[in-house]
Amino acid sequence: MGKKTQRKNARMDLLDSDDDTSSISSSSTMQSERPGMDEVQVHKDVMLDQSLDALYEQRSSTREQALASILNAFNSDLQHEFVEKKFATLLHQCLHCIKKGSIKETSLASHVIGLLALTVGLGDQAQEILEESVTPLSQALKSGREALKITSTLECLAVITFVGGANPEQTERSMQIIWQMIHPKLGSNVVATKPSPAVITTLVSSWAFLLTTVDRWTLGPKLWQEIVTYLSSLLEKDDRSVRIAAGEALALIFELRTLEKFAAEAKGSTANGSVKEGSVSQEALMNMHGVKSKVTNQVRDLAAEAGGKGSAKKDLNTQRSLFKDLVEFLENGVAPETSTKVGGDSLQTSTWYQMIQLNFLKHFLGGGFIKHMQENEFLHDVFSFTPKKIGGHSTMSSEEKVVCLLDLVPFIISGSHCIICFYLWQRLFKSPNSALNKARTLFLNKQRMLAKNMNDGHYAAMVENE
User: Fold this and answer.
1) Confidence grade of residue 409 (pLDDT, cut at 50, 70, 90)
2) Is 309 helix (H, G, I), strand (E, B) or coil?
3) Measuring CA to CA, which residue among 409, 464, 379, 333 is closest to residue 162?
4) Which long-range contacts (CB under 8 A, 24 or more apart) does 68-75 make?
5) Handedness of CA 252, 176, 218, 275 (dihedral sign)
6) Prediction pTM value
């Protein structure tokens, strides 16, 4: 039931040295020890440098080829060393391509920026990517009409916000940019354009992807009703991908128990005999429950839909599976459990928000999904996933890294210049994906689950008292 998902794992490379008197080896010595691996890496580094230089060329086709080459490199491996040296240059050249380049350039550059954010993980660089990119991406969305340009820009905005959004205001800002494309504010001389099914699907999935990170949402009941009503209308569209995206978004909203929170608020206002400013009216509450009842009936119909003329059987099975899961959730409160193979490991999800995050990132990473899920530490922490082994080396959990650090304390205090101590210190605390940076993700995930459990208990108590 549901879709299978996968996780990635972090690799700890061991630094071996046969000569205790030689704490630092020259690059030529290390290449002679691992000639095949180092020659390949050097070739990749040269190719990346050449591709980055080609982004300064005037010919658009040259820049497109360079972006495609960079995209392939970031998909096939995690380019931490290259990013450490060329982060600012790569970001600014990609933004230039988005501002001035062709449709294909914009699409490729947007994808590269998203991969750049996933590569650096949490920290100042991810926040810099978001703040530097949000305005050019927003302008590209307003100026573009081509589906390829819009969908790639939307996905980039969602990914860099997911990684670099350090506070709720930044996430809400990106969500508002996306929602304004769904419901644009029209002037007297502005004619609304009808987005294609591909654009609608990306709009809804990007908005829902960011909603998974929001612990406290400041929207009032009126706007929530507008959102649910709109998503309900999408369930009636001919395009199956649109219906699936809308169904997942609605499942997430119901999992967040938004309507129940408004119900508790309305009940409290009635019990006090007064209605506070901004509180939920009984009429508004009844309207929202009416919308939910309508959605429930729609979901039941879609779960049992017969195949139509020309419909793809694969998409039909995906739709039936999704909406059967949603019926089960709406009626019994049981979210689908999924499992996805990543190498020799299995990634488990048990909530709608985890499944939505996984599906979105799997789509964005494409062919690079397995590699990133195996080695990208940021994604490991997002999904609380630790592969058992990678490349024959056992991986270390965050707790094991802390223990390792404690073992290093005597060496650090004594001022030892042990190269192994220095290397592990760099890996644990100085890298963009360090344990300290990852602690923020773990903390936010735990806080979210705690808040969800508290909300579930509050709702159960409210229902019991009714």
Assistant:
1) low
2) coil
3) 379
4) 68/108, 70/112, 71/108, 71/111, 71/112, 71/115, 73/44, 73/47, 73/48, 74/112, 74/115, 74/116, 74/119, 74/368, 75/115, 75/365, 75/366, 75/367, 75/368, 75/371
5) negative
6) 0.74
